[in-house]
Write a structure and sequence with these properties.
It is globular, with a radius of gyration of 19 Å. The chain is α/β, with parallel strands linked by helices and 235 residues long. It is built from 10 helices and 6 strands; from the N terminus they run βαααααβαβαβαβαβα. The longest helix is centred in the middle third of the chain and has 18 residues. A 6-stranded parallel sheet has the order 3-2-1-4-5-6, sandwiched between helices.
């Protein structure tokens, strides 16, 4: 209070933070997952077009399995779902040796780290399949919060993965930005009350990502880094 006038302190600038999906966002693995799911389905004598499988990648494995089987009209059982998930994991592990970081992924994460901008990874994959890819990406699990399907009750399009990642970073989810390649990432970000940035590197189109809630869409991590000033990523 100065001479009867209340002095209001200046507003502090909100700290930016980024919550990244993994497959199709930081690493080029979407089609490896698609082919692994096809192999798993074929092992169960379930015939489903590859494009239909691709449209489900990005959501939780359990929910994806339910939706895929619903499209085929085949009876769903807990035992069959468990078998499909195990078959997918086995098939993906074989293919994951070829998975590489997307262009600019390492540079983007390095930039954020050096700029002291908090970031975390939240993936619908389980640690057994995500672990080797995270290592190839150069993510230090002792320093970077990584939330996998094993650690939450529900995965995308539910918001649990991103909410948990924000908690691990100790940031307000309302000031965080989710970066993902699928409509399921964008829907989860909206339900979490976070902004969403879409990347085209997972195969979804710009209009699809924007329709699901993305306020910016870039080609890949390199393109996002080149426009980092547009998304509150300045130092």
């Amino acid at each position: 209070m100065v001479a009867g006038v209340e002095v209001v302190p200046p507003l502090r600038r909100s700290q930016s933070s980024f919550l990244f999906d993994l497959d199709g966002t930081l690493v080029d693995s979407v089609y490896h997952h698609v082919l692994a799911w096809r192999e798993a389905l074929e092992a169960e004598n379930i015939n489903l077009s590859i494009w239909r499988i691709h449209r489900k990648v990005g959501m939780s494995g359990g929910l994806m399995t339910h939706m895929l089987l619903r499209e085929t009209g085949i009876e769903i059982s807990a035992e069959r779902i468990a078998r499909l998930q195990a078959l997918h994991s086995k098939a993906y592990k074989v293919r994951s040796a070829d998975v590489q970081p997307l262009p600019g992924a390492r540079d983007l994460l390095t930039y954020l780290t050096r700029a002291d901008i908090p970031w975390a990874i939240a993936t619908s994959g389980r640690l057994e399949t995500a672990g080797p890819v995270l290592e190839r990406l150069g993510v230090d699990l002792d320093r970077v919060p990584v939330v996998t399907r094993d650690q939450v009750k529900y995965a995308k399009p539910d918001p649990d993965l991103f909410l948990t990642a924000a908690e691990r970073l100790n940031v307000d989810i309302a000031t965080a930005t989710v970066v993902g390649d699928s409509v399921w990432d964008m829907l989860a970000s909206r339900r979490a009350r976070a902004l969403g940035i879409g990347l085209l590197s997972g195969g979804y189109g710009q209009e699809e990502l924007q329709g699901a809630g993305a306020y910016r869409v870039y080609e890949d991590p390199a393109d996002m880094l080149n426009h980092i000033d547009e998304v509150a990523g300045r130092q």
